[in-house]
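ok, trying the design again with the full structure, not the truncated one.
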């Protein structure tokens, strides 16, 4: 018999200093009935259960990482080079990838059902007018997916345990929002052509959505989207000890959507994002040679793009970077 469930995972992760404390309470599934009223097949339920199993494994791996890190001496934590430190860092990375996989399995159940709705509309050549709230929540889920992926990448790149813990926590919170918003979209599509006042927490009204669509993202990026941070910014844990040149294409105090980034940079190079001193900074390339970075700068065709330099995560002026390279060629 088909059951109606609502997914709700209670992951109690509390940062203590820069360590991590995980509740002994297991991951739980209370069902999908509290917020959603959607029918799921037995196969859907099994997929969700599989996702929960993976998330439970992820929590166990996270606990192991924390226990390993707690066993380190202060010197080992500071130097970040001992085998045990590397082991704890690898465990964090492993946990993050497991969380990513588990959340993705559950999200896919919602996503496929939403796609099924649109495929059915296409078959009957119907455009399903009046599901703007569903479209809105799907777009929100898409934006949050991009942000979560960036956090997961930061977990893989950093050599700082405490920073990896922070980014893993942020990614998990985003993934829960992704599932929530995709589920809300599914509920709207399921109820079509009727739309209800669902009473969801932090729900948006149709009037608010109409206002959003009436004033879409600007076609020409605003001036402050190209602003940059001060040269005395905090250490960037994403970068290694060598001097690295990057081409910064944009920065903002709020995340920039993928759509807007494509307006800014139309090339094919991967775009890096780091969050530093309350700024989201976007750049392309990582070069040990200034001339290589300058070549990319000239070819990227981004208005107001410029070259930035880092050493050991600390931002340098270009003059400082070139002077250091002259003294100590890499």
């Amino acid at each position: 018999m088909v059951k109606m469930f609502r997914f709700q995972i209670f992951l109690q992760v509390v940062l203590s200093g820069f360590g991590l404390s995980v509740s002994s309470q297991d991951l739980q599934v209370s069902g999908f009935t509290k917020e959603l009223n959607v029918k799921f097949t037995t196969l859907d339920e099994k997929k969700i259960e599989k996702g929960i199993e993976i998330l439970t494994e992820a929590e166990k791996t996270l606990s192991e990482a924390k226990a390993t890190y707690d066993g380190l001496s202060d010197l080992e934590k500071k130097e970040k080079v001992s085998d045990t430190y590397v082991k704890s860092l690898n465990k964090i990375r492993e946990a993050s990838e497991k969380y990513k996989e588990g959340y993705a399995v559950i999200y896919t159940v919602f996503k496929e059902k939403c796609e099924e709705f649109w495929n059915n509309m296409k078959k009957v050549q119907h455009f399903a007018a009046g599901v703007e709230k569903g479209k809105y929540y799907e777009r929100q889920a898409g934006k949050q997916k991009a942000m979560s992926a960036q956090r997961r990448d930061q977990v893989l790149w950093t050599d700082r345990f405490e920073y990896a813990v922070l980014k893993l926590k942020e990614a998990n919170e985003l993934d829960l929002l992704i599932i929530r918003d995709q589920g809300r979209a599914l509920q709207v599509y399921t109820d079509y052509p009727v739309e209800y006042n669902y009473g969801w927490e932090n729900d948006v009204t149709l009037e608010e959505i109409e206002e959003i669509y009436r004033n879409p993202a600007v076609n020409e990026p605003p001036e402050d989207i190209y602003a940059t941070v001060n040269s005395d910014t905090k250490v960037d844990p994403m970068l290694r000890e060598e001097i690295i040149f990057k081409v910064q294409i944009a920065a903002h105090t709020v995340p920039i959507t993928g759509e807007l980034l494509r307006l800014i940079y139309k090339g094919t190079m991967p775009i890096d994002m780091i969050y530093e001193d309350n700024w989201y900074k976007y750049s392309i390339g990582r070069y040990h040679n200034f001339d290589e970075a300058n070549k990319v700068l000239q070819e990227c065709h981004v208005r107001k793009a410029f070259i930035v330099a880092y050493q050991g995560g600390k931002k340098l002026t270009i003059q400082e970077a070139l002077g250091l390279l002259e003294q100590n060629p890499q």
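Keeping the full-length input from now on. Residues 1-33 have pLDDT under 50 and may be disordered.
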